[in-house]
Amino acid sequence: MKKSLSIIAGVALAAFMMAACNKSNDNPAAPATQQSNGDKVYAYITNLGFAPSNIQDNGTEYIVEGDIIFPKNMQVPADNGKVKTEQFYTGVLVSQTNSRKIRLKVHSTMTSMSAEIDAAIAQWNAVPNCSIHWELATGTSYDVLIQDANLGAGVCGQGQFPAGGLAGALIKINKAQIAGNSFAQRQRTITHEMGHNVSFRHTNWSAIGESSATPVPGVGGTDASSIMNGGQCGSGATVLSAKDKQAAAVLYPL
Ligand SMILES: [Zn+2]
Question: How many domains does the chain have?
């Protein structure tokens, strides 16, 4: 009797495991509707610590804190933004392999700012002891697209956080807004948005009233010289600060 019970238990366990297996296998294949995936993305954004008051619904995407894009059809990371360790980032990184080659496609609407884009790439690529390496995509394959967009008065650019081990796929630059800025400041906007696409949040998130961010281990705190300070378009730092570089090397070691 005991033996047959254990056999039954074994069969039941095997059946359960198969069901569990099927369930996880089915999940990725199940087509998510735009609406339900959008709800998941909204939950993910709030799990990252952003306050609902800082989330704008833009139709096909959410815009957070003015310059960060979350497409409603994005792949939400498996941890749903809840897994955290301790400037500041989202807790979700570009994979080590992908960070070594981030191909940036310059849309035809942005070729007039090619020199500024080149300068921004050079800044990120010069960070010591850091795996981040951007390069211009010359063919049709790329990881990140940078394009001009009318983002409304006062918004200079928008970046997109990484997901699924990939750099955020899109950078929008409001060319009309930054056209009157100096070369160094136009370049700053592009370098800053590229920082969002590799997970950086605003270093001064607390001072400008944004929701809590995850400190980079050993590199938390404020930094007036950080190029990742928000709300400083046209007036902020134009080069990555010592702490910006230190943080990039901690998150993306060689
Ligand atoms: Zn920003």
Answer: 1
d(CA 87, ligand 1 centre) in Å: 13
- CB within 8 A of 154, min separation 6: which ones? 177
In a domain, 184, yes or no: yes
Q: Does 48 fall in a domain? A: no
Please report whether residue 50 resides in a domain.
no
Distance 114 CA to ligand 1 centre (A): 20
Q: Is 190 contained in some domain?
A: yes
Give the tens place of pLDDT for each residue, 234-253: 999 999 999 999 999 999 99
Could you tell me which residues are beta bridge partners of residue 144? 104
Q: Distances in Å between the alpha carbon of 158 and those of 11, 23, 151, 196? A: 54, 37, 8, 8
What's the CATH code of the domain at 203? 3.40.390.10
| Ligand 1 centre distance from Cα of residue 5 (Å) | 62
For 84-139, write each residue's pLDDT tens digit. 333 788 889 999 999 999 999 999 999 999 999 999 999 999 999 999 999 999 99
Q: How far is the CA of 140 from the centre of ligand 1 (A)?
A: 27
